[in-house]
Amino acid sequence: MNANVKLGLKQRYSLLTRGLDWETTYQPKEKIFPYAEFEGIKIHDWSKWEDPFRLTMESYWKYQAEKERKLYAVLDSFAQNNGQLGISEARYVNALKLFLTGISPCEYQAHRGFNHVGRHLPGVGPRVAAQMQSLDELRHAQTQIHTLSHYNKFFDGFHEFTHMHDRVWYLSVPKSFFEDARTAGPFEYFIAIGFAFEYVLTNLLFVPFMSGAAYNGDLATVTFGFSAQSDESRHMTLGIEVIKFLLEQDPDNLPIVQKWVDKWFWRGHRVLGLVAMMMDYMLPKKIMSWREAWEIYFTEAGGSLFGDLARYGLKVPKYADIASAEADHISHQNWCTFYQYSQAAGFHTQLPTAEEMDWLSEKYPTTFDKYYRPRYEMWAQMEKDGKRFYNNALPQLCNVCQIPMVYTENTDPSAVSGRVSEYKGDKYHFCSDGCKDIFDDEPEKYSQAWLPVHQIFQGNCGGPELEDVLKWYRLNIGADNLDQAGSPDQKMWDQWMADRAGVGG
Question: In this predicted model, what pLDDT tens digit does every residue of 263-278 receive, in sequence order?
C-alpha cells in the first residue's frame, strides 16, 4: 500500500479494530479461550457482530479527554465556591453516602468484569467493545470518587467506603450482584451487565439520581452523572447488540438467553430497591416517586423493548408482573428496615414529615395510608415519648439477593414472603419465587454465599456485640450512624445556616 494514500474512515476503523484480530498457531483455540463454549452458547460467525458506535481507541480517548476537562472544571468551581452550602438540606447528603458506598465500588467491579470478558471471547468485535466499556466503568468509579470526595471534607460517613463495601450488611446486596455476574461465564456476564442492568434497568438508577441531585442543588453530582450518562447510552446499545447477536447466531441460544434475562432482571430489580428508597425518602426535594419512575422506565420503555425483541422469541422477564406490583411497596419496606437498623448503617435516617407523608399518600394511594402511615405515626409517638425504636435482632437474609426477609406476599401485604429449598441436607431461605428459582438452578453456587448475619453469628465480624461489629465496619459510632436529628452533620449544617443568616454565635 502506498504510504502517502490517506485511508478512508471505514478503512481506518477496520484496521484499528477488526484488523487487530489474530489466530492461534501453536496452541488450540479452545485452550486460549477456555470459557467460550461451556455455557452452551453457539456462535457460528463472529464477523456478524455489529459495532454500534464505530469507535476506535484513538477517537475514544479524544472523546473521553474532552469530557474529563469539562467535568473537572465544574468540580474545581464547585469546591472553590463552597458548593456544599448550596444543597437543599443536610439530610440530602445521606443519598450521596449510600451511592458512594453502594454503587461506586460496583462500577469498579464492572470494570474488572468487562476486562475479564474482553480476554475470554474469541471474537474481536465484542473484545474491543468490552475493552472500551471496561475503561468507561473505571472512569465512572474514579469520577464518582473524585466528585464525592469534596463532601468527605465536611460530612461524616464517606470515609473507608472500600473497606465497608466488603463488610457492611446492606452493601452485600449490590456487592453480591456483581460478584455473581463476575463469576458467571462471559456470555452470561454480557447479558447480566450489558443487557439486563445497562439496557433494561440503568435509567432507573442514573436518571432519577441525577435529576434528584439537580433538584437538590448538587451541581457536582449532576455533572459527573451527565458525564457518565453519555457512556451509558453506548453501553445500552452494546447490551441490545449482545442480545441480537446471540439470538441470530443459533436458535438453541434462545432458552439459555431467556433464562439469563429472567435471572438478571430479578436480581437487578432487587438491587434497585435501594434507589427506590432514595427517591421516596432520602431526597428533601423530590422529583417523582419510585412507582412513577418504574412506570416510565420499565413498564413503558421495557414494554416497547420486549415488544421489539419478540420477533426473536424473547419474552418479557419472568416475574416482571410481580416486580411491577412490588413498586407500590418496596421503597417503604426498605426505608422501614433502615429506620429500625440505623444504629448499624453508615448514614442517617429520619421519619417522613407530615408533608412528606401526604406526598407519599398521593403517590401511593392504594398502599401508603393503609400499610405504612400507621407504622410511621406509631414510631413518631415512640420518639416523642423518648422510646425511639431500634431493632436489635439480626434479621434472616435471603440466600440469593442477601436482603433481609422484609418483603411481603404479593397477594397479602400483611404477610412476610418466604420460600425454602433444601440442598445437601441443609435448608436455604429466600424472599421470593424469583430468588428461589435462581438458587434452584445453581444451588452449588449460592449455597456458598457470604451472608453478613451468618458471619456475625459465627464470630467472624469483629466480635459478639453490636459495638464490636460496628468497629469492624470502621463506622464512627454516634457520627456515621443513628438519626439525622442531633447528628454532627445536622449540627454543623444548622451552624452554617445560622452564620449565613447572621445569627450565629
Answer: 999 999 999 999 999 9
